[in-house]
Amino acid sequence: MADAALRLKTLVEQLLQAPLPVRVRAWDGSEAGPPGAPVLVVHNRRALRRLLWKPGELGLARAWVAGDLGVDGDLYTVLDLLAGLIWERGDDARTLAQALRDPDVRAAVRGLAKLAGPFPPPPPPREEVRQGLRGHLHTRHSDKRAVSHHYDVGNDFYEIVLGPSMVYSCAYWDSPEGTLEDAQRDKLELVCRKLGLKPGQRLLDVGCGWGSMALHAAREHDVSVVGITLSEEQATCARKRVADEGLADRVEIRVQDYRDVADGPYDAISSIGMAEHVGAERYLEYARDLYSLLRPGGRLLNHQIARRPQRDESSYAVDAFIDAYVFPGGELAPLGTTVTQLERAGFEVRDVESLREHYALTLRRWVANLEAGWARAQHLTGVGRARVWRLYMAASALAFESNRIGVNQVLAVRTPDSGASGMPSRSRIWN
User: Fold this and answer.
1) Which residues, including other chains, have CB under 8 Å from residue 37's CB and lie 6 or more apart?
2) Where is the Polyketide synthase-like methyltransferase domain (predicted)?
């Protein structure tokens, strides 16, 4: 079809009942849309079939991961321009049913179906997890499978993205011009200071990743650390790092579920970027388990992504793309819900610090790392997986910047019956 881009743009605007803010380049080489705007490249008709078969975010994600859709220009700009059409409209069945009551919308769908060619679309990209793993009930078995999907994609790939620090949570920036490694070191030190670590104490690091927090705490604060993870690849890397630094006498790395830790009490617990995997139905159990593992007066530092409160609080599930390709079964609760659950478990919450802007900057650095090592990343994990990560991190950076999601460090104490919390009389002395 000659000039497919103009036809496509016209039909999409009729469907959305809004002007398309980006330029479109179609499979026939034609272009249409605002001059000078970044270009959304529709490489083939399969992209349309995917979008019509699964309208909204998941269809777009499938087309992107499969290489049916691309971007000519700045990815952040394109995502920002499309945000109002993707994330803010919703793609649930009720929204779609309401839209299809409009005859113009129905006509646009018929026109796009004709332009898309024969149905059905091809299968989802192989990087998409099976439906049974998404929205699971957070059993030990299903949690291990979900963690393996996300983390067991190769330590060499994560080193490209995360850099030498191998810390997969937001850094703590003194200045946007600083290095990622310095900012990650400062974040680990901030956690240690909030926990008030002293030589000889025992620290449990829940979701220890590649061992960076455990190594920092043992090396800089002379504590004994048990780090737990469900990822075999993370544990292998962490144990090697521990051995290379000569800290095997103070750091133990286990492949273990937090529900199976039974060698308390600990003086402190760090949980950095792990609680998002717990699930709403298990969160109180998680909080109670950690509470039981602390000695009276022991502290918990819970570092967790949160989403803004919504009118419908029946589900905390992450969005469709992330659930299907990144964090199957992940859930994001509002900050107030997290604090309430910690208090219900017995904790006294003493401090809450938002690091939202810090995470946005961290993600942009990770995206830059991935783009700089793009050829090797694709070789290590495949083109589809690399595309998943580029889209996921860039979209997440924009979500933090626009306050759609946030991240918070919650410092809580297992306050003794005497009421003497052991906390400093002046708050935030760690800053």
Assistant:
1) 21, 22, 23, 73, 81
2) 157-416
Q: Please, which pLDDT band fits residue 375 given cuts at 50, 70 and 90? A: very high
- DSSP character string of 72-138: ES-HHHHHHHHHHHHTTT--SHHHHHHHTTSHHHHHHHHHHHHHH-SSSPPPPPTTSPPGGGTT---
If one counts the domains in the chain, the total is: 2
Q: Which structure tokens are listed for 234?
A: 């993370």
Average pLDDT for the chain: 90
In angstroms, rounded to a whole number, what is the distance separating the alpha carbons of residues 99 and 154? 43
Closest CA to 109 of 206, 242, 12: 12
Share of the chain above pLDDT 70, in %: 90
Q: Cα–Cα distance between 172 and 189 in angstroms, integer?
A: 10
Q: Which range of residues forms the domain containing residue 89? A: 4-116
Query: What's the pLDDT tens digit per position in 122-139?
Result: 899 998 886 545 555 677
Is there a single domain that holds both residue 110 and residue 153?
Answer: no
